[in-house]
Specification:
This protein is mainly beta and 347 residues long. The chain folds into 2 domains: 52 residues, no CATH class; 246 residues, Outer membrane phospholipase (ompla), Chain C (Beta Barrel). 31% of the residues are buried. It has 3 helices and 13 strands. Strand 3 and strand 4 form a beta hairpin. A 12-stranded antiparallel beta barrel has the order 2-3-4-5-6-7-8-9-10-11-12-13.
């Protein structure tokens, strides 16, 4: 009797162990199915430079450390990793240099206190003799083609881009009526490394009075202010956070405005990832124009900024002080002095 009981116990134990193994095997199989299958390091052809069309799937990204798997003995295959990077024109950090369509980031960044730059902007201000105003910009600047770096690092190389914005003034004391709007579009060609950048660009700008403003001021003289401008700009970072720049523009054709303009300034802002806590910024800009006898405007901004990576755009909020000729060119010969609060997104 005891022997029969022992035999039954052994058969039950054997079946239990077998069942547990089957359950464990199924669970492991499902877990492996959910995970991305490893790509052998030796298959260098699996890595590509820049975005690639995968017919509806996500584009490949530049190589990073997560793309390199451990060797069989558990150590990182340093020699194999270096060979893979070298075969794809990359260094050990996963950075690359080559052709890209729609690259991330700008090589020649926008001037932070330049009020006519193409960006998203909203500045609520009180102007001396102007009342409460909202100056808003709806636009941006992006790269179309780059021969240069990949990834989330600060972009370097050559880049062709496009920019444009509608820059509108609303009179908040008059039911947010539109006083005027300037429209800008341009094509910048830029080159730069981590310290020095150069820009050669074309832009068109035209200015228009708002319908509500004309209805309230029927005798006001409407101006057909417009410019088609060639621009040469130079920018340098003496340190990681400080930037100094200057540019000169010449209008090959214009109406009301005169050909020459120049602007220059200094930016202090985070150049890399800030995290959630952000970092301070400050900027000054002077913009001088021939049609006002090389007078113009002076702008000072200061506040707090956030940037996701060295190649991303930057969100800012803070105060702005503006003094000089109007930045709405329908009123180009009128002087303004404004203090306000602003939100900006720079590309």
């Amino acid at each position: 009797m005891t022997r029969i009981w022992i035999q039954k116990s052994l058969r039950f134990t054997q079946r239990a162990i077998t069942g547990c193994c089957l359950v464990l095997g199924c669970w492991c199989g499902m877990a492996m199915g959910r995970a991305d299958p490893p790509t052998p390091v030796a298959e260098a052809d699996a890595f590509v430079l820049g975005p690639v069309d995968r017919s509806g799937t996500e584009a490949d990204l530049p190589i990073d450390e997560s793309s390199i798997y451990e060797s069989a003995d558990g150590t990182l295959a340093e020699d194999m990793r270096s060979a893979v990077y070298a075969s794809n024109g990359m260094d050990g950090r996963g950075s690359g240099f080559g052709w890209q369509l729609m690259p991330q980031g700008l090589i020649y960044r926008q001037y932070l206190a330049g009020v006519k730059e193409s960006r998203f902007r909203g500045v609520w201000s009180n102007g001396k003799g102007e009342g409460n105003l909202l100056d808003a910009s709806l636009g941006g600047q992006v790269g179309l083609l780059r021969y240069g770096s990949f990834g989330n690092g600060k972009p370097v190389g050559w880049q062709l881009g496009i920019e444009g914005a509608g820059q509108v003034r609303l009179d908040l004391d008059q039911d947010a009526d539109v006083d005027a709007a300037d429209f800008r579009m341009g094509v910048p060609l830029t080159w730069g490394d981590e310290i020095t950048q150069v820009k050669f660009a074309y832009y068109h700008l035209s200015s228009h009075l708002g319908d509500e403003f004309l209805l309230k001021n029927p005798g006001y003289q409407r101006l057909n202010y417009s410019r088609n401008v060639l621009v040469l700009g130079y920018s340098i970072y003496p340190t990681e956070l400080w930037r100094v720049y200057a540019e000169i523009g010449y209008a090959v054709s214009s109406d009301v405005s005169q050909p020459w303009e120049t602007q220059f300034g200094i930016d202090y802002a985070p150049n890399g990832a800030t995290g959630f806590h952000g970092a301070p910024f400050a900027a000054v800009n002077a913009h001088l124009r021939q049609e006002v006898d090389f007078g113009g405007n002076f702008v000072f901004q200061a506040g707090w900024a956030w940037r996701r990576s060295p190649a991303s755009g930057m969100l800012r909020t803070g105060v702005e002080y503006y003094n000089g000729k109007s930045d709405q060119y329908s009123f180009y010969n009128l002087s303004e002095q404004k203090v306000g609060y602003g939100i900006w997104y720079d590309y």
